[in-house]
Amino acid sequence: MSLKAMSAPRASVFTFESTVHSSHVLRCLDDQRRRDVLCDVTVVVEGQSFRAHRSVLASCSEYFTQRISSLTQHGAVITLPQEVTAAGFEPLLKFAYTSKLLFGKDNVLEMRTSASVLGFRDLDEACFDFLLPKFFSSTKGPCPRKTCCKKKYKRQLSKTDSCTDSDVVLLDEKEVKPVDDSSSQQEVVWPCRKSESNKLGSQNSAATLDTAAKGANDGFMQSPKYRKFQLACGKDACVVAKSLAAAIRNECGLSCSPCSSGTNSKNETEQTNPAKLRDNRAEERRKTEIHDKKRDVEIGEDEKDTNKRKGTLDDIMKMEEEMEHFAGISSPDRSSVEAVSSGESTRLGERSPGLILHHYLPRASAGGPVMSRSQGQQRLVLDLKDNKKTRESCEEEPVSIFQRAEEQAEAEGERGIMDRATLPANREGSTMGSDEGSSDPDAGRSSNTGSGQLQATSVNWLNIHANLTSRSPDCPFLQDLDQSKCLWKGAGVSECTSHSGVSSLNSGEDSETETEGDSEAYTRERARQVQLPFSVDWIVDLSRNDFQQLLKQQSFTQEQLEFVHDMRRRSKNRQAAQRCRKRKLECIYNLQCEINKLKTEREKLIVEKSQLSQLKVTTGHSVSALCQRVCSEANLQPEQLQVLAKYMSPDCPLTSLFPHIDTLLSQSRLPLP
DNA sequence: TGAAATTGTCATCAG
DNA sequence: CTCTGATGACAATTT
């Protein structure tokens, strides 16, 4: 909830905005449906009847929107097409009323078909594309994620390396360590997207795949070495890269990356795609113009982090890298990726925006992080970050809204306003659970800051954050990653990958602090010192207006203000420098390709010229022979010789045939032309 | 150990 | 006037 003072100059006008209202309404509607109260439509599927509210169905499904709009009488009956089965429809109906989708291996296909036929909004194909392999693919991809991949991953993440089938990795049972294998029933709690999301069914596929391809290209354009560029161009990388991009598009959405491309980094680098990059740049500019937080795909910036983390941290890093990898391929904006086990959530990475993976182990744990859970049931909670749905879902999933900013703040060791003053209590059981025990030296200190003024402003913080967050792009799986978010790894968000959950990670972070660059450590330290209530990264990502709004609504101290401006400026500039360099490399690359094309063209022309010369010589000889024959047989007169000379080529003068022709012609006083 | 490559930052300009 | 992005230049760091 929030109270916002409007900007009316004279009268003080306030709006009350409830963050729980929509959830409450939906719950009541669901309750009514189950009690058959106020239901005004009957849906018949395979002879089975389902009572529901027209408005709800129409709100969720294009099919119902059309069908119901043509109905007038109360108590209408709608018989669904035979493609829709009861087993497929029922979960969708529940989803419409609860935002939750409960499915298992046995009905997921039917659900997918039903959702497709009914045009169920908020359920885009990507979801099923993402999840179906988990059900029906018993084997890993041809290239299970190996350490060798991970090592280079950080820097070459966006390449279409052999391990881009990270969706498999992500949900691979080994990765999430399920306890109850027997349970095939998984629940996807999916507070999905709102209005725009209905486009995602078909459009999203293309768009996101395109983005994936783009990401791949951008990625290896992002981290190329000059010599690799030259190598790439030397092998006509343009063509190869185009093929690659096409392959990416043609591949299925999330397990899109052809593992067959090999793990050799050089080979991968050779598959750059300048043409695609040009397209990407155009797209990039468009997005920039509308202040979309478009970022280049660049994730694996901190290889040094990987190299430096030791001991137990390595395992976490592996997981993190895999998450990051997934994020790089398929995730839209960054939010969080969590593997939750036994009530603890381990922050795995902050680079997979919009995707929080919770894996709940059967053990009963108090204070469910996101939702209630039943024992003995393996669950997978995909919090597909729907920034537009944050308010609706915040009551039910209080974590999902504030967690991101707050976790980011946590990641920087900042226990700020959000943490103490406003976050719902039950969040403590989730990401905060183990984090409470972390050795963050600033935790206690920061908590003291959450008093007085900060308490008073906490509502604003929530509101601001909800508002600002809601403006982020909305694409569940495939969307460009924000490179800046990764670049701030040392100082900002990414750090929370090692912060809130596992104590060993904290130690890892500490050691990391010692070995990382001074700048990052300094920024992080400064963020702690000024007790910034939000993560550096989050603030950097704000649009100009949002940033201004933030500054207006939150009274920063002078120190905080300076820090925020400074780090925002530097971060923006850093991103700009990276874009600039990328463009530069792209330019070099394109020029190299152009040179190669011209060289090829030149060689072709040389060959053609040689052939023509040969032909000319041959033809000249033939003509000479013919002329000689004609002249000798016809015993030509000087006048006739003159006519003949007129038509002779300069290259084959008549004098070569008749050495005495000049004498003959001079005798006849007829000059040669 | 030195060269090359990479990256962050600053200064400056333009929109 | 301020903000932002682009870019050259420099320095530090990594490879």
Break the fold down into its secondary structure elements and pairings.
Layout lengths: L1 E4 L8 E4 L3 H15 L5 E5 L2 E5 L1 H7 L1 H8 L6 E4 L6 H13 L1 E4 L4 H11 L6 H12 L10 H10 L9 H6 L1 H4 L9 E4 L13 H20 L3 H9 L2 H14 L14 H6 L3 H16 L13 H6 L3 H19 L6 E5 L2 E6 L7 E4 L18 E4 L7 H5 L3 H14 L5 H6 L8 H5 L6 H8 L3 H17 L13 H5 L15 H13 L2 H12 L6 H6 L2 H10 L4 H77 L3 H9 L7 H4 L3 H7 L6
Parallel strand pairs: 3-5
Antiparallel strand pairs: 1-2, 3-4, 6-7, 8-9, 10-11
Helix pairs in contact: 2-3, 4-5, 7-16, 10-12, 10-14, 11-28, 22-27, 29-31
This protein binds a DNA duplex (15 and 15 nucleotides) through helix 25 and helix 28.
Provide a descriptive summary of the structure in words.
The chain is mainly alpha-helical and about 675 residues long. It contains 31 helices and eleven strands. It is elongated, with a radius of gyration of 34 Å. The protein binds a DNA duplex (15 and 15 nucleotides) through helix 25 and helix 28.
